[in-house]
Amino acid sequence: MNKELIEFASEHNGVITSRDVTHIGIPRVYLTRMVESGELNRVQSGVYVLPGTVLDEFAEIHFRCPKGVYSHGTALYLHDLSDRTPLKYTVTLPSSYNATHLLSVENLEIKKSIPVIYAAGITTIASPNGFIVPVYNIEKSICDVVRNKDKMDYQVVTDALKSFSKRPDKNLTRLMEYAKMLRIESAIRTYFEVLL
Known about the structure:
This protein has two domains: 2-49, no CATH class; 57-195, 2-Layer Sandwich (Beta Polymerase, domain 2). Strands 1-3-2 form a three-stranded antiparallel beta sheet. A three-stranded mixed beta sheet has the order 4-5-6. The protein is an alpha+beta fold. The chain starts with a helix and ends with a helix. Helices cover 45% and strands 17% of the residues. The protein contains ten helices and eight strands.
């Protein structure tokens, strides 16, 4: 069993969770035994890593808050639309999600959205250390920052808009769909008439 768990963790950037073990059909007690024998390290409740594996903050937050989707300035950074490392990691959660257990997490800003807006544009990306984390796509990220531009650094917003306008993988149709959903069509049109 230990070998099977080590192989699984190796295939997943050195990480295995209690949920993974249950899904595989192995009793969770093996995780405890492997921690006691030094074959795994317990990072936080339900998250274990192979010795030598270092989780970055993006992965740590994701494991603490699996429903959280990186958004706003954090999404800009992950998509290379901003060169500023986020001072606070921003995640968006469904409005019905009870996030009280996350209030103690340092450097975490929580946004909430109604289910339709929350679910729109979710994709995944590799964090700086190679862990796969959920993030909004570039179009939704741009709409989020335009919608919240008064609460963000002006330079971050303008740099992101300029970077987005130069991206070959941008999808203007999708951008306008999100803009309509978020009721910011006129603001998006104004910005991109100047940039494009």
